[in-house]
Amino acid sequence: MFNYRFIRRVFLILLMLAAVTIQSYGFEIYYPKEKKSETTYDYGLFIGKARNTELISINNINIHTASNGAFAHSVKLKDGENRIVIRSNYSTKVYNVYKKKPAIKAAAEIKELEKRTLLVKSDNTPLRRAPEDIGYNIVSYLFKDTRIVVNGEKGIYYRVFLSKDKTAWILKSDVDENSCPDTEPASFVNMDSERFKNANVQTITFTKNLPYTVEDGEKEILFRVYNPELSDNSVYTLNILKPKKYFYNVTLNDGFYTFKVSEVPKTFEGCTIVVDAGHGGEQDGAAGCLGDKEKDINLKIALELQQLLKQRGANVVMTRECDGTITLKDRIRLAKAREANIYLSIHMNSIGNVAFSGIKHRGTGVYYFNRNSRELAEILEKTISKSAGTRRDGVKSRSFAVIRPANYVGVLIETAFMINPSDTLLYRSPEFAKNVAEGIVTGLEEFICE
Ligand SMILES: [Zn+2]
User: Fold this and answer.
1) Distance between Cα 344 and ligand 1 center (Å)
2) Which of 347, 145, 371, 402 is CA-nearest to residue 244?
């Protein structure tokens, strides 16, 4: 009798131990990081790694896992509390996602104001086509102490009067409300132009700093300076014919503008290329199905690329060569200071707010912002996919901060999807970084040396 009870107890203990062991052998979830979270998104993405022979279901839907165990699935969220149960034959995990309603901003009305002259507080102040914070609507980056005339307001923006038929918008916080510019309007001093081997420079001088815009047209680039204090239609236009591959920049010093359109060098020697490994340090970037961090893969590719470009004789500038934190502003500052010709930002993709089947979103996408960078984006999307074996995810125009300046030809490469189970098989392979780097160099060769 006693023996029987003892054996039963030992058996029960063993059973419990086995259950605990099996639990700890179960799948991992790498995103979301927390079991409880809040979102305004319509979908909640779950990515993770299953152990051998483990079958995963999310809210009773069976999920496909890649041969290395990677899986990804997104769940449609309803307003309020959502309970998501992830189950396998070994273990169960429960997540709670609270879907908040997105905050609806009260639409402000445009209010007319008495004309006022104000000064811009700092360099690099965006002047926008519309009173909204969207990268696309930036028409200019104004310099410190630029004199602007405002004649209207909407919410947190002032309407800037440029000419009889042109207005733009500026954040109220970007102008000095207490500035009291003298009442004397600015006047034109002179204009000049100079040709260099790889650049065309035009200069124009006024007695004060005035607002300007740059427009990248079909055949030429148009640079306009506005002096609305003098008359309603006082606009000065400079235009420079575009070389085939170009970048441009504007400087301002005490009313003296330099507008320079440069040609991209035709050989690797003499070409300054910024290799920008995305994220780093405190910023992990996207999480992968198997727990990889985007920042690490970006860096691996960047280091391979550095090697290959150096071998070709290019002047390579790295934004980081180790796992350090660097801001977007500092990356741009570095590129400008080193007078970069080409800027390559290396990233890995992820996607949040869509129905994610794990198949649909894969492969290499290349992004550009300015017209001068589109051709390189198109070439790279082809050559990288070919060399790395990724699916082609297309070329898109997006307003990413590091590729917004027109001071260089700039593209942002989303090499593969961190969250795609099939892409994990590719980016986990030891040759991946080298293959991507080789694809980039092949594309650059086509772009530069053609
Ligand atoms: Zn990234």
Assistant:
1) 13
2) 371
Query: Ligand 1 centroid vs 403 CA: distance in angstroms?
Result: 13
Question: What CATH fold (topology level) applies to the domain 272-449?
Answer: Aminopeptidase (3.40.630)
> Rounded distance, CA 18 to CA 285, Å?
37
- Distance from the CA of 49 to the center of ligand 1, in angstroms? 21
On whether the 105-263 domain is CATH 3.50.50, my answer is: no
- Distance from Cα 328 to the centre of ligand 1, integer Å: 12
Instruction: Fill in the DSSP letter of residue 433.
Output: H
CATH topology of domain 24-99: Immunoglobulin-like (2.60.40)
**C-alpha of residue 248 to centroid of ligand 1, in Å:** 26
Dist. CA 30 → ligand 1 center (Å): 17
pLDDT of residue 178: 86
Mean pLDDT, residues 144-161: 96
Neighbouring residues of the ion ligand 1, judged by CB less than 5 Å: 278, 285, 347
Distance 309 CA to ligand 1 centre (A): 22
The pLDDT of residue 288 is above 60 = yes
Three-class SS of 306-320 = HHHHHHCCCEEEECC
Above 90 in pLDDT, residue 205?
yes
> Residue 1 — pLDDT band, cuts 50, 70, 90?
low
**Cα 362 to averaged position of ligand 1 atoms, centre (Å):** 15
**pTM as predicted:** 0.88
How far apart are the C-alpha atoms of 372 and 246, rounded to whole Å?
Answer: 6
Give yes or no for a contact between 146 and 208, defined as CB atoms under 8 angstroms apart.
no
* CA angle, 407 then 263 then 129, to 5°: 40
Measured distance CA(163)–CA(234) in Å, rounded: 7
Positions of CATH 3.40.630.40 in the chain: 272-449
278 C-alpha to ligand 1 centroid (Å): 6
CA distance 445 to 448: 5
**What's the confidence (pLDDT) of residue 359?**
63
User: Which DSSP helix (H) or strand (E) runs through 191?
Assistant: strand 188-195
Mean pLDDT value across residues 124-152: 92
Q: 147 CB contacts (<8 Å, ≥6 apart)? A: 117, 118, 119, 181, 186, 208, 209, 210, 211, 229
